Amino acid sequence: MRLRGFSHALGRIPIDLLHARRLFLAAGGHLAGACSRGRTRRKRRPGNGRGVAAGLSSRREFRTQYIRRRSQLLRENAKAGHPPALRRQYLRLRGQLLGQRYGPLSEPGSARAYSNSIVRSSRTTLDRMEDFEDDPRALGARGHRRSVSRGSYQLQAQMNRAVYEDRPPGSVVPTSAAEASRAMAGDTSLSENYAFAGMYHVFDQHVDEAVPRVRFANDDRHRLACCSLDGSISLCQLVPAPPTVLRVLRGHTRGVSDFAWSLSNDILVSTSLDATMRIWASEDGRCIREIPDPDGAELLCCTFQPVNNNLTVVGNAKHNVHVMNISTGKKVKGGSSKLTGRVLALSFDAPGRLLWAGDDRGSVFSFLFDMATGKLTKAKRLVVHEGSPVTSISARSWVSREARDPSLLINACLNKLLLYRVVDNEGTLQLKRSFPIEQSSHPVRSIFCPLMSFRQGACVVTGSEDMCVHFFDVERAAKAAVNKLQGHSAPVLDVSFNCDESLLASSDASGMVIVWRREQK
């Protein structure tokens, strides 16, 4: 019958919607019969197209009735709710099948190529966000637009584990495409792999003022940027030799607290103690736009939405988190929330549906982020330690083949680096372990190593107030320290690896940036 095309399309919908299809088919048979009987009464006259036109009209009418009836049944089914056990079973089976077929979920760095391809298509929609923010039909029960699928962190951990259950012990890499990453990482132990040959270069253009942030460009080996409390941002190029400062971005009237690269590295966004954020073109260094903080407060941190780079999240000294549309320069309606203290750290998960924010009172909040509108819904709160500022948050979908749970790396002024497990899709955190460092007052940051998912063990890197860069193996039960780099003369505030881990950059409170070269095996 003419249901073939629709049946083919329905074959792609989730299992929990097939019940609606069966209900329709039970009623649709009579509808199809009525349409068929209507067509049999019409006689086609030779030499004209009335019979053909009547058939096409009937098809269109049937299609309209079919869609209306299907929509009605889907709405009724949605109101009735889905059996939780059946839904969980379906998600588990789907996750296992997808994991076995395509490998585990990608890390943010490896997903950037895909993200870049869809950012352009999303920008037009995001520029028109105000057009549908007030549409009540777009809102869920709690006033929050739900994504098609937020994904489950419990399911994600199961997927990461399921990929390897049937693999031989020597199979380290989930797909052939990951062989390149494994080759870059080196088939060695963590201690051998993170041995450094010494300093590659030292940048001292910001001496006498702290450099709170240093970052390599996305998927780039030799382009680096750092911001300073002297109010400027430096863009540096490491190759060809000698390394040089390409340009210095000036415009902020007070210290620059944070900055971030866009996915395509064509723009940077920076936040400053002068209560403004600025959008910069990395190609020529010009300031595209200056956006004042909605509260007129010092801006302390920022991050791009991983997929929709038209949105940037900022945190300020008046305890507020704001989602800003950098194309319009306006705050997104519903994209603000208040924390218990000054917002010092922000981090998204890889898909961009969960946001974590840390404040100077020792709390970490998780938010559900609406992918369509940029609205925030507060989900969970964790008190790391009352009164201890949370200065850094880094999220990772999975750490290694031994540690397959989604994880969060947190610096707080506790003389410890903390590793948390993300246990559900609302961002609930569970402490996994901690590592000793010196941090009691400075805004020290840490990172996950970009290639650690493809080798035995897993490594994290952090700054410290003892003027050293520390490497830790998160899976080693005893003696987790892997390496320590010495060379700074002030507390190390931030660290950043390039995309293939051949170079590591670190910045300190005296304004010095050191680029370290890893030993080649």
TrEMBL record:
UniProt cross-references to Gene3D superfamilies, sorted A to Z: YVTN repeat-like/Quinoprotein amine dehydrogenase
> Which PROSITE patterns did the record assign?
PROKAR_LIPOPROTEIN (PS51257), WD_REPEATS_2 (PS50082), WD_REPEATS_REGION (PS50294)
Q: Where does the record locate the signal sequence feature?
A: none
The lineage's top-level taxon is Eukaryota
What SUPFAM superfamilies does UniProt report for this protein, alphabetically? WD40 repeat-like (SSF50978)
User: Residue ranges of region Disordered?
Assistant: 36-55
Extent of Basic residues compositional bias? 38-47
Q: Does the keyword Ion transport apply?
A: no
Note the segments forming the WD repeats.
249-290, 485-521
Keywords of the record, alphabetical order, are: Repeat, WD repeat
Which SMART domains has this protein been placed in? WD40 (SM00320)
Q: What Pfam families does its record include?
A: WD40
What InterPro entries does the database record attribute to this sequence?
A: WD40/YVTN_repeat-like_dom_sf, WD40_repeat_dom_sf, WD40_rpt, WD_repeat-ST_regulator
PANTHER family the record matches: WD REPEAT PROTEIN 26-RELATED (PTHR22838), WD REPEAT-CONTAINING PROTEIN 13 (PTHR22838:SF4)
| Identification of the protein by name | WD repeat-containing protein 13 isoform X1
Q: Which gene encodes it?
A: WDR13
